[in-house]
Structures
1.
Amino acid sequence: MDPKLGRMVTSLLAYLLLLEGGMFSPSPPPSGLLERVFQFIDLHQNEFVQILKEWVAVESDSVQPVPHLRQELVRMMALAADKLRCLGASVDSVDTGFQQLPDGQTLPIPPIILAELGNDPKKPTVCFYGHLDVQPARQEDGWLTDPYTLTEVDGKLYGRGATDNKGPVLAWINAVSAFRALEEDLPVNIKFIIEGMEEAGSVALEELVRKEKDRFFSSVDYIVISDNLWINQGKPALTYGTRGNSYFRVEVKCRDQDFHSGTFGGILHEPMADLVALLGSLVDSSGHILIPGIYDQVAPLTEEERKMYKAIDLDLEEYRHSSHVKKFLFDTKEEILMHLWRYPSLSIHGIEGAFDEPGAKTVIPGRVIGKFSIRLVPHMNTSVVEKQVKQHLEHIFSKRNSSNQMTVSMTLGLQPWMANIKDNQYLAAKRAIKTVFGTEPDMTRDGSTIPIARIFQDIIQKSVMMLPLGAVDDGEHSQNEKINRWNYIEGSKLFAAFFLEMAKLRLQ
Ligand SMILES: *[C@@H]1O[C@H](CO)[C@@H](O)[C@H](O)[C@H]1NC(C)=O
Ligand SMILES: *[C@@H]1O[C@H](CO)[C@@H](O)[C@H](O)[C@H]1NC(C)=O
Ligand SMILES: [Zn+2]
């Protein structure tokens, strides 16, 4: 059979099966309202790009602790607050005080915006989290254009913050503004929490969320974050989990001062030899963690989950190539993704006190500190992991009969986050993605740690979803960060379609 014809027959069959099965009803055609909203967004896309340009022009860098940058951040938050007020939202710019820096300097923390639009008890309330601060950027770092002048080249909008996270915040606002401009009722009640310190560790955010739990957040049903990326260039994703992290420091000390290997070499338990043995006992050459019990709490893989990995679009060769890696530990897409997302990993980061310069210095370091961390997955628990790591290192160390002193501490313990993807908002987002992009999303997790999702889940105890808009090559935090015009505009439509789907689910 002609392959094209074959495909047609297959898709026709699939379509009939869908109709027959009834389990997956095909998404309904866009309603008249949705069509008008989409049309509005298309017609006004240059205005939406223009606002993004104005926002990118503000150097809202929260990383460099410089007073004039803090002023820019405050100005950025004021711009956003104004924009939300123009939409008719009630806006509270919450002053959260000052940031104390290690050098004694204090700097103001930009206000956190809490805004709301609509409080109809018959509608679900969706709260959008975003941030308007950015990573530092200078043209000399290798930008082809001025990082703070949004510049369009071949449909790509280059500028610091374009994708992380000003573009997605504006896409949500654009979606709301389309309903407002068409004088249509918003399908859901909308809330915003927008901060300006995300890139600096979300200083003051958790405390504010706790404080507002029974007030601002009491009516919130769902939380949406759009601060990560798709895992490829053209296919949208929906993200339901992130790994946690527990960071360890293991110190081996003989004395504070270093030794000469000519004078002491041969008669000492050398701290570095102890440390290398300790670090060498953590993980084997296939990436398997050797700490007893560490895999006990890892959630078992279900058949349903296995299928989700199979459906994901990832060009492994391209990924390997662009990462300049000859060979990964695993050969299949499924294994690679599972080991990034749903299994723990242990990485050794460095040794403090080691001789790390060029040349041949014959030193015996007197005191060294090894650093490693474990990315955690459901249902691992930081306090259990801490105990297991300490026990393991003590056991290995005791076998060496060393007279040195070993101290182990966990300096960071962040729990993993995972959402229930059967939740209404995941269902609504999937339908909205189908409507706008004509495809099922890649169901992704993130191998890194994004504490904010878990914080919202723990404190507010409501469903959290990550709905990214940017493509995999957007270069967040990097030189030549961009968002594609297509992603930005279709992303605005996606949020609008999502509001309508949420409202429909409420009625069912
Ligand atoms: C982690 O384990 C400890 C000790 O077993 C327990 O007290 C704690 O509640 C657990 N934490 C979580 C988040 O499950
Ligand atoms: C440590 O000491 C024990 C008992 O003194 C001895 O049996 C063992 O071989 C020693 N181990 C090492 C690595 O030196
Ligand atoms: Zn971000």
2.
Amino acid sequence: MHHETNNRHTRQTIDAFLDVLRVCGIALPPFLTAGPLVDADLPPQALAWMRDFIRLHQRAAPAAASGCVPVAGRDSDLLPPLFTAIMAFQGHEYAWHTPGHAGGNAFLKSPAGRAFYHYFGESLLRSDFSISVGRFGSLLDHSGPMGESERYLARVFGSHRSYHVTSGSSESNRIILAASVARGQIVLVDRNCHKSVKHGIIMANAIPVYLPPSRNRYGMIGPICPEHLAPEAIATGIAQNALAARAADPRPVHAIVTNPTYDGLIYNVALVEELLGRTVDRLHFDEAWFGYARFHPLYAGRFAMHGDPQNHGPAQPTVFAVQSTHKLLTALSQASMIHVRDGRNPVEHARFNESFMMHATTSPLYPIIVSNEVSAAIMDGRDGQALLTDTIAEAVAFRQAMARLHADFAARDQWFFNCWQPDRVRLDGKSVPFAEVPMHDLLERPELWTLDPEAQWHGFTNFPANYVMLDPIKATVTTPGIAANGGMEQTGIPAPLVAAYLNARGIVPEKTANFTLLFLFSVGIAPGQWQTLTDALLAFKKDYDVNAPLARTVPELTRVHAQYAGLGLRDLGESMFRAMAELRLSELMAEAFALLPRPVMTPAVAYEKLVRNEVASRSLSQAAGQAADCVAATGIAPYPPGIPMLMPGESLFPEPGGAPQTAPVLRYLQALEAFDRRFPGFGHETHGVAVAQGIYRILCVQ
Ligand SMILES: *Cc1c(COP(=O)(O)O)cnc(C)c1O
């Protein structure tokens, strides 16, 4: 009798558990670990659903655990094609080909090699195959399991064709540009582009015409506004560009847009496609940070491969997307994907592959490719949505906690950090404080994350409703210091000091600007991990308010730079803030980026000068003294966010003849140089600027 009740209870529990799995839509293969239960005790739906039984009384526990890993053959429908092929290859061939370590054997012949072997593990080395192993096909001709794997990516990511790339989205961008743009052709380029786009333009010898992104008072990068994407605006941009105006063919052949921006602002891609598609046949979305978009309905319509690929045809532009699957999906570093939808003026596979082969290695590391494929498998079906829901929920919990803390301190007239997000949102006709919006609404309703053009908090203008959306998983923490009108407050706390404090506690933000810190919530985030961050921010506030000694709070700083030894946290924060105000860092940055610089030669010609050594390294005062003109040889991009202030071939001076006192780029660099000299340990990183003994030097064309 007692046995009967127990079994009924077990049966109900199993039933309830299976219901939960079904509702979540999770494609987990349920394994049942059973004690003395017999099959007759199980509910029929469990028998149908279960993959296998692991009898705890029959196997030792560790063996049972390893039995839970799906193995090739039995569960191959759970594993993607290339991984299946590699796992199934148990045999060992006598290899007379590379790699020379021969499945790891060579490592066993020396102590350092053995340490390497044991540290990284046998399977990594055993799966490091040469391209001569025919059974896996070839990445370069997309055959065999390699080709199958790429077709699998295409299905999962919604493209017509997808490509595995093993040298990052840097390589992906260069491949696409080389396949689509020829010498002297015009390409429309988001000025907010990654440096690999610059490299692709140099290699293609193309003429870039820039699409200017917006910026707000924090210097955050917003979208390119629709007015700049309209055909008339593009025609004006081409006519006003001295190099493009002379191009043999005035029509742009290709356009590149970074989606989302570094600060997590996502485009309404369907609208961008419609607007840019009026001028150009081929659109290229750099979605390095956005591989997950397809797998959660919150992002519907906001990524390049949106909707059904079957509905994309010759009436639409050809669309390329680039994704760094290692950035926010789960692939290993270097893994990237290219997705293509053919439309007007396509670059069909055979021609595209010439460029692919020109950039790809002939010896790719298979574990990188498999990790790319597995990152797709992890997202496939509704598993991806469940994982992303958890990730977004973590980010939302953090954002709401920050909003609550900010409000609590404000009620007591005290400062605290905030998250860059609306204070209130409209929910069913009512205005609700962000912290009080129910979680499920924030998880399900994209309209709660789209930027209202009328709202003040974001500081962007000139875009329509439903054009830009804030990505919940990219959380920007703001520090006090910037007023709502864009000017500086009387007091403030520089974010780089907060970053140094957090670093000393093992917390590393993705990027730090003057008054903002960016934190990314990836699928790898641990539940509740954000609480260590709010704890650390609260600890910072406490230490800052009592001016705790730097020697205790940021010990590394005082150890390396003796000048800070006697100071407190607030002493340093206040003096940095005063220097930022005095040097007008924020205003000068805004001015430096306000107007597009004057192009004197194409990036490719500037690069040729570099190769021929027809360049000179100049300090800022030497550059200012150039009577004729001062043309950047390598380009200059302050980091973050790494947007070029000058591209190679562009002049430091707005007008020929040189007017250093009015050259905004020069003035901003001078201000950065002065700040860096006063605050060692807080120097700015600027690509294209070499710093020696506190002096900034740039490479100019002679
Ligand atoms: C990081 C990044 C790249 C390059 O990606 P890698 O995979 O690191 O080579 C390209 N574009 C953008 C916008 C990026 O942020």
